[in-house]
TrEMBL record:
<dbReference type="InterPro" id="IPR003462">
    <property type="entry name" value="ODC_Mu_crystall"/>
</dbReference>
<dbReference type="InterPro" id="IPR036291">
    <property type="entry name" value="NAD(P)-bd_dom_sf"/>
</dbReference>
<dbReference type="InterPro" id="IPR023401">
    <property type="entry name" value="ODC_N"/>
</dbReference>
<dbReference type="Pfam" id="PF02423">
    <property type="entry name" value="OCD_Mu_crystall"/>
</dbReference>
<protein>
    <submittedName>
        <fullName>Ornithine cyclodeaminase family protein</fullName>
    </submittedName>
</protein>
Length: 327
């Protein structure tokens, strides 16, 4: 039996943002109800943690089974932060046909990852604020930030993005390239603190130290920390009125919460809910307008697999993608 292959272009042509949002919300809900198998990411450090080997790289394995779509799959991603050209991360998503016992498709994974990561933010912006965010601060102007601005602009009625990057050229270049394609205004900021004038703040960097001082915050904002490492200060997290995650175990292993967890300063009891609990109505905490909410969605393999299955089904109908016989 042949395996369907999808290039980045194939994926891009078949991936609809609105449908991806529906898939993500349903998968979050199903996970909260126990109908998705989504083990924590399996990570392999290759020097990005300061240990041997002498590389600034890591790899992650993200398997999942999504019952409501009857699909199992896995995403494998590898990153080398020392690369000076091109995108430092690449990934593939493999889908498995449970009835036939074979891999039915291999898809380029970076475009799906970019959209999925931005969709996570959209879900948080919709469910973790009492009202629509008119202004959003974005710290980071790399590969993922482009998706954040594009997807959020298309799916939400945002007035202004406040964009900052430690590399001013990168933030200005991103703003210039996206300006003709976004309805929202993109304002390039000179300091991280300037992004804090927003209703919500997204940190989408590979920084291993906090990118925004807690002193710049007023304590009544939604902060969505998307990076793999420590983007937020301890105080920003510990002073939050609500700490929401996508997956408790893996958010304790990577991302903004992990350092506090390693020092035993944050435990399971400090996490108020998963985003699936919130969507499913299982979180009783009422979010008020003056509350600080910290949301750390490290990314679920189940949503990658769900979106990939959507692309596969659409591609099969439209005869998009190539086929290859491994056996």
């Amino acid at each position: 039996m042949s395996t369907k292959l999808f290039s980045e272009g194939d994926v891009q042509r078949r991936l609809d943002f609105d449908h991806a949002l529906e898939l993500a919300e349903q998968t979050y809900r199903e996970l909260a109800q126990g109908r998705v198998v989504n083990p924590p990411k399996l990570g392999m450090h290759m020097g990005d943690d300061g240990e041997w080997p002498d590389l600034n790289a890591f790899a992650i394995d993200m398997p999942a089974y999504v019952d409501w779509l009857d699909v199992a799959g896995v995403k494998w991603a590898v990153a080398n932060w020392d690369l000076e050209t091109g995108t430092p991360i690449s990934s593939l998503i493999l889908l498995f046909d449970l009835e036939e016992g074979r891999f039915k498709s291999i898809l380029e994974g970076m475009y799906i990852t970019g959209v999925r990561t931005a969709i996570q933010s959209v879900v948080g912006l919709q469910h973790l604020r009492p009202s629509r965010p008119a202004e959003i601060g974005v710290l980071g102007a790399g590969y993922q930030a482009r998706f954040q601005l594009q997807v959020i602009d298309e799916l939400l009625d945002v007035d202004t993005f406040y964009l900052y990057d430690i590399d001013d050229t990168a933030s200005r270049s991103l703003a210039t390239s996206l300006d003709p394609r976004t309805d929202a205004e993109i304002v390039v900021c000179d300091t991280p603190a300037a992004t804090a004038q927003s209703d919500a703040i997204l940190t989408v960097t590979n920084s291993k130290t906090p990118v925004l001082s807690d002193d710049a915050l007023d304590g009544s904002e939604l902060i969505i920390a998307l990076g793999t490492y420590q983007e937020l200060s301890d105080r920003t997290i510990l002073d939050a009125d609500h700490v929401i995650v996508d997956h408790v175990e893996q958010c304790f292993q990577r991302g903004a919460l992990s350092d506090l967890v390693d020092r035993n300063e944050l435990t399971r009891s400090d996490v108020d809910a998963t985003i699936g609990d919130v969507i499913d109505g299982g979180y009783d905490g009422r979010i008020q307008g003056d509350d600080r909410v910290v949301f750390t969605p490290i990314g679920l393999g189940s949503i990658d697999v769900a979106i990939a299955e959507h692309v596969y089904r659409n591609g099969t109908e439209d005869v998009i993608g190539e086929e290859f016989n491994f056996v």
